[in-house]
Amino acid sequence: MRATTTEASDMSEASETEKADEEIGKYMMRLMSPAVLAYSMYSLLYEDHNSWYGWIISSLYGLVFTL
């Protein structure tokens, strides 16, 4: 079965969208990673945690909702 021009243009648009999503994802990761790291350090120094495990879970929780 041969792809029609409409299907071909839809596939090229999807490909362009995927490329744009990947590029934006990289930029967002570069932008947000220092913020997540800074929050984790702030949390370690100034907030109360019951254990290292609690701090790690809290930091990972923040990471999940930030990224």
Structure description:
The protein is mostly helical and 67 residues long. It has 2 helices and no strands. α1 (5-46) runs antiparallel to α2 (52-66). The longest helix has 42 residues, at 5-46. The protein is elongated and about 50 Å long. The relative contact order is 0.10.
What is the oligomer described by this structure? single chain
Number of strands: 0
DSSP helix fraction: over 70%
Q: Percent of residues in beta strands?
A: under 5%
- How does the major sheet shape up? none
Round the Cα radius of gyration to an integer and report it.
20 Å
Q: Overall mean pLDDT score?
A: 81
Q: Strand-and-helix sequence, N→C?
A: HH
What structural category arises from helix and sheet content?
mainly alpha
Task: Give the end-to-end Cα distance, rounded to a whole number of Å.
Answer: 41 Å
Low-confidence runs (pLDDT<50, min 5 residues)?
A: none
Put simply, the count of helices is: 2
Shape: elongated
SSE layout and pairing:
Layout: H1 5-46, H2 52-66
Labels describing this entry:
67 residues, mainly alpha
Compose a concise summary of this entry.
By secondary structure, this protein is mainly α. It is built from 2 helices and no strands. Helix 1 runs antiparallel to helix 2.
